[in-house]
Design a protein that fits this description.
BirA Bifunctional Protein, domain 2; two-stranded antiparallel sheet; 2 domains; elongated; binds 3,4-dihydroxyphenylalanine; seven-stranded mixed sheet; 11 helices; 374 residues; alpha+beta; 38% helix
């Protein structure tokens, strides 16, 4: 039976409570039965119409005739009723909109023999995978993993690595500077780190020798993107400091690490180079793991090694005593300790390892490309 609003004869609190509860439960129920816009409009008129709508009748039949003593209570109750009915109207509006859609979903029959929805599982990005594999190689040798901030100060990125202010070596690592830093002393100015080497200093400030660390991380340079450059890329840095570290340790460690990573038949070759923070410095090459060092693939030239049979993998060297000077107070007296360091590009190694010819593919986020490494 549809609800009709009664006249009130008894204005006691209990009677009022009962009448209000009946009205609200009717409202609640009626709005729940809305199925479409037309239902909703009809119901809105039934409850809200100025003329003879239920809310108007509440005024006319309950409030107006109420005896003076009861007016306040009735008035308050009527306000509560109006607020609740208005909320029901809104609920009904939502239902009118959604019911047809929900109905469509639930009434179509479900074929339980169809395969379920498969949620594809993610996989490691090839650069992350390469990084993790390389880091593992050094962890097995007893190295621990360190990291540091990507937004770095001029001091850690350059000065403490023996790139003095205005030194031309800085030109090889142009970067992106944080704006509005002119008011600060040069060494405090912020920039995006150009290499993971600043973490060498940060770690030596915190840990006394001996140390052996690997530092994977993101770095930036002011290079326009192309097949082999990106303004953002990844490095893996290493540092070993102790009382008697020699160039022989450097060669032995890196030769072992490359055999672990690329396969036991690769050879390594060290060629003189320059970095401000190492002396002497070298570039390390591995024999081409694609053509086996011959420079040829069948009758064709081997492209990855440019037919040389060697691929450049990293920069390395003996830590320059000038670098130790910056952390001397934490036990790194250059007369007492020595060390070696190295740094390599994780993206470049991943390119070579997976035979990818365009670095940009790593950063475009195309799942069709990335899925091939899963
Ligand atoms: N930081 C150098 C670069 O980004 C790479 C490097 C070279 C790191 C020699 C080292 C090193 O630790 O000893 O070009």
């Amino acid at each position: 039976m549809a609800y009709t609003i009664p006249k009130l004869t008894d204005y006691s609190a209990a009677a009022l409570e009962k009448a209000a509860a009946e009205l609200l439960s009717a409202s609640d129920q009626e709005w729940q039965e809305v199925r479409n816009e037309a239902d909703w409009k009809a119901l809105r008129d039934r409850w809200m119409a100025r003329k003879n709508g239920i809310l108007t009748l509440v005024n006319d039949l309950w409030l107006k005739p109420a005896p003076k003593e009861a007016k306040r209570d009735v008035g308050q109750r009527v306000n509560e009723i109006k607020a609740q009915v208005e909320r029901d109207v809104e609920k009904g509006r939502g239902l009118a909109k959604n019911y047809p859609i929900l109905h469509e979903c639930f009434s179509s029959s479900v074929d339980i023999t169809l395969p379920g929805l498969r949620r594809p599982i993610g996989a490691e990005h090839p650069v992350v995978k390469t990084t993790n594999e390389m880091v593992r190689v050094f962890q097995k040798l007893g190295y621990s993993v360190a990291d540091g901030p990507v937004v770095e100060t001029d001091y850690y990125n350059f000065e403490a690595l023996n790139f003095p202010p205005n030194h031309p070596a800085r030109d090889t690592q142009d970067t992106l500077f944080i704006a509005g830093q002119q008011g600060k002393a040069q060494r405090e100015r912020l920039l995006l780190r150009t290499h993971t080497s600043p973490v060498q200093i940060r770690t030596m400030e915190k840990m006394r020798p001996p140390i052996r660390i690997v530092i994977p991380g993101t770095v930036h340079r002011n290079d326009p993107p192309d097949a082999s450059h990106s303004p953002m890329f990844h490095q893996i840095e290493g540092l070993a400091v102790d009382t008697n570290i020699t160039f022989g340790d450097l060669k032995g460690t890196l030769d072992h690490a490359m055999k672990e990573f690329f396969g036991s038949n690769v050879k390594t070759s060290f060629r003189p180079s320059f970095f401000p923070f190492t002396e002497p410095s070298a570039e390390m090459f591995v024999s081409c793991f694609i053509c086996g060092g011959s420079g040829k693939r069948g009758m064709d030239p081997c492209r990855p090694c440019k037919q040389t049979g060697w691929i450049e993998i990293l920069g390395c060297g003996m830590v320059d005593p000038n670098v130790f000077e910056f952390v001397k107070d934490n036990g790194y007296d250059p007369k007492k300790v020595s060390g070696f360091a190295f740094g390599m590009g994780a993206d470049r190694i991943a390119l070579l390892k997976y035979g990818v010819d365009d670095l940009q593919l790593f950063f475009q986020g195309d799942v069709r490309f990335l899925g091939q490494f899963a």
